[in-house]
């Protein structure tokens, strides 16, 4: 059940640790029911990891936290769910889970990532928007990071072309960052989605943006 995957993604374990757990064919629900002794036997988990897991089970009200997420309007999907984007399963250090507003990229669709400088030229801005619009009009989904500059131009062009576009954020999916792109944040989920591997309320930190680029 995704409720248990949501708990696991919030234990404080690193993406690499979560990848090890998933790779050992232990599902989140099974992990939740394990004793401390059994957890110690999982290859790749340290004593500190086991403490994080046991403390989170003790401190987290699973049902309440899951319901709170449902009521927030943020959707959640883990790698344990077959709805998880297939291509992301095979990247280097795949995310264990995604939070999103709108919907996930559709399987079988062609998609292109368009990213670039925040301080671009007028020509660069026009070409990024024109290219994204043409792609959208030809049923190609456009992926970017909703940053100022080329990223925003790409999303805007895809929307103008009537197509689907997806923004991958370096903060929680419930946060519009940067604030200047509020129009895009509100508009993108109508035909695409705003995605993040970070839990709601996660602030935009510099270290998160290079990490999100692997998803784009």
- What is the C-alpha radius of gyration, as a whole number of Å? 19 Å
The proportion of strand residues reads 5-15%
How would you sum up the global shape? elongated
**What is the helix tally?**
10
The H-and-E topology, N to C, reads as: HHHHHHEEEHEHEHEH
In the sheet with the most strands, the strands line up as 1-2-6-5-4-3
Number of strands: 6
Mean pLDDT: 94
SSE class: alpha/beta
Proportion in helices: 40-55%
Model description:
This protein has 216 residues and is an alpha/beta fold. The chain has helices at 2-9, 15-23, 28-32, 36-40, 47-59, 62-72, 122-137, 150-160, 182-187, 208-213, and strands at residues 75-78, 97-102, 111-113, 141-144, 165-168, 193-196. Strand 5, helix 9 and strand 6 (193-196) form a beta-alpha-beta unit. Helix 1 packs across helix 6 (62-72).
Q: How would you briefly describe this protein structure?
A:
By secondary structure, this protein is α/β, with parallel strands linked by helices. It has helices at residues 2-9, 15-23, 28-32, 36-40, 47-59, 62-72, 122-137, 150-160, 182-187, 208-213; strands at 75-78, 97-102, 111-113, 141-144, 165-168, 193-196.
Which features characterize this protein?
216 residues; alpha/beta; 10 helices; 42% helix
Give the SSE map.
Layout: H1 2-9, H2 15-23, H3 28-32, H4 36-40, H5 47-59, H6 62-72, E1 75-78, E2 97-102, E3 111-113, H7 122-137, E4 141-144, H8 150-160, E5 165-168, H9 182-187, E6 193-196, H10 208-213
Parallel strand pairs: 3-4, 4-5, 5-6
Antiparallel strand pairs: 1-2, 2-6
Helix pairs in contact: 1-6, 7-8
């Amino acid at each position: 059940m995704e409720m248990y995957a949501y708990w696991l993604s919030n234990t404080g374990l690193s993406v690499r640790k979560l990848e090890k757990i998933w790779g050992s064919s232990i599902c989140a629900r099974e992990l939740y029911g394990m004793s401390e002794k059994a957890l110690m036997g999982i290859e790749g988990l340290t004593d500190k990891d086991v403490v994080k897991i046991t403390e989170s089970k003790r401190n987290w009200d699973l049902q309440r936290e899951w319901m709170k997420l449902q009521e927030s309007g943020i959707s959640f999907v883990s790698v344990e769910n077959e709805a998880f984007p297939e291509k992301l399963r095979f990247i280097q250090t795949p995310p264990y889970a995604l939070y999103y507003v709108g919907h996930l990229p559709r399987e079988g669709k062609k998609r292109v990532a368009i990213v670039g400088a925040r301080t671009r030229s007028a020509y660069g801005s026009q070409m990024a928007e024109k290219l994204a619009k043409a792609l959208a009009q030809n049923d190609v989904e456009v992926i970017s990071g909703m940053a100022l500059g080329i990223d925003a131009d790409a999303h805007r062009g895809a929307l103008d072309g009537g197509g689907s576009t997806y923004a991958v954020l370096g903060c929680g999916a419930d946060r519009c960052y940067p604030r200047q792109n509020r129009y895009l944040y509100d508009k993108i989920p109508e035909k695409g989605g705003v995605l993040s591997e970070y839990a709601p309320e996660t602030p935009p930190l510099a270290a998160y943006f290079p990490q999100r680029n692997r998803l784009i």
